[in-house]
Amino acid sequence: MDCQAKDNVMNIGGEQDIVIVGGGICGLATALALHRKGIRSMVLERSESLRAAGVGIIMQPNGWRALDHLGVAPKLRQTCIEIPSGLFIAAEKGKFRESELPLGKGELRCLKRRELMKALAEALPAESVHLGCRVVSIVTDPLTFDPVLQLHDGTLIKAKIVIGCDGVNSIISKFVGVNSAKLFSRCAARGFTYYEHGHPFHDKFRLHDSGDVGLGQLPVTDKLAYWFLTRSLTSQDMSDSKKDPAYIKEVSVEALKGFPEKMVEMVKATDPNALYLTELWYRTPWDIARAKFRKGTVVVAGDAMHAMCPFISQGGGASLEDAVVLARCLSEKLKQAGNQSGDRRKMLIEEALGLYVKERRMRVFWLSLQTYLIGLTMDNTSKMKKALGIAGLILVFGDQKGHTDYDCGHL
Ligand SMILES: Cc1cc2nc3c(=O)[nH]c(=O)nc-3n(C[C@H](O)[C@H](O)[C@H](O)COP(=O)(O)OP(=O)(O)OC[C@H]3O[C@@H](n4cnc5c(N)ncnc54)[C@H](O)[C@@H]3O)c2cc1C
């Protein structure tokens, strides 16, 4: 992506205060939240540039609240239109029937991921993000009990605090003892389609469901539309083909047989450079309910904590909330620590990280439970699982959009 690489001028080896592993949405947002509280941190990102894989991201009212607390929402609002209403279009006996798609109360927009990453990165001090720094291991120093990170080139970094924002296959979450994320039986293709003379979708979120295939479409601007398609995962989707835009387009168009022509044309006209196919990973709700998420002064956030399938479009929003809560908890306890060093300071840091985990656990548990139950309803191999998913959703999540009515609080 075009986000400028930050100068890697600082010597990053040796001792550091706070190291954030991973420069995705969560890592950048966490560094920014800490910066807003006057706390310095260092972000280590393994890629040579800040990546914005997945082109678009749906941001719901809770996500916008977090972006407001981070101070980047006004800039981002200028990049995308508000989406006030939605249509649910379900296939029934060969015909598509329309009904209202509930969107929850408040602001919903579809952001370009690139704009989100850029806004977060640009609000950081220039020396914060270090690209091309892959963390290959983390151990505890046997004398001081501080975490020690090793980079791919052998550089050792001893940190006071490590925050693992390194995504689904996180090295840091393994270190703190979280079970690995699980592979879901479906995959998602996503893309941007540009319409020179404006798209015909107005300001509506459209969600088509044919049982086997789900197709969502949202306007980003008057001329740019974002779409996502979910379908069963095949072995070819997990091979190198998933990086080939021609393959992604071909199988997506194939999956859309019988869908309205306007939607098929949208997928056919997708910019090949803005096409992605991804497997879907998730952590089970019971893993989230019982995982520790913290070991000493090492903690996890974002997908490293709560990877979830995108059925309620909350992984990114929840990652922004993590960032705000984590920075708030840390800054309160660091203030109490004042100039003290040694064991007392370490104890207060551990308390702060413990409070953060406590505050986030139930929030992300409910998000992951709702997502998990929706996943069960998509299971066409077992009527029992499908029924369990439907019953669970009716009994526990009467208000399907209740998850968007959440404020993580001020920094
Ligand atoms: C198909 C799909 C659609 C989605 N749609 C939405 C949506 O509409 N709305 C929404 O809110 N959420 C959505 N999500 C979820 C959202 O994308 C994620 O929750 C969010 O990107 C998580 O951000 P993160 O920073 O935690 O992880 P990531 O974005 O995965 O970032 C992790 C970063 O860490 C780096 N890294 C990994 N390992 C190391 C290492 N060892 N050393 C250094 N760096 C490392 C990676 O390179 C990467 O940059 C969707 C997800 C998928 C799969």
UniProtKB/TrEMBL annotation:
UniProt key word Transmembrane helix: no
Residue span, FAD-binding domain: 17-340
Keywords: Monooxygenase, Oxidoreductase
Domain of life of the native organism: Eukaryota
Gene3D superfamilies recorded: FAD/NAD(P)-binding domain
SUPFAM superfamilies on file: FAD/NAD(P)-binding domain
A GO molecular-function descriptor: FAD binding
Annotated PANTHER family: FAD/NAD(P)-BINDING OXIDOREDUCTASE FAMILY PROTEIN (PTHR45934), FAD_NAD(P)-BINDING OXIDOREDUCTASE FAMILY PROTEIN (PTHR45934:SF7)
Similarity section: Belongs to the 3-hydroxybenzoate 6-hydroxylase family.
Entry protein name: Monooxygenase 1
Species annotation: Hibiscus trionum
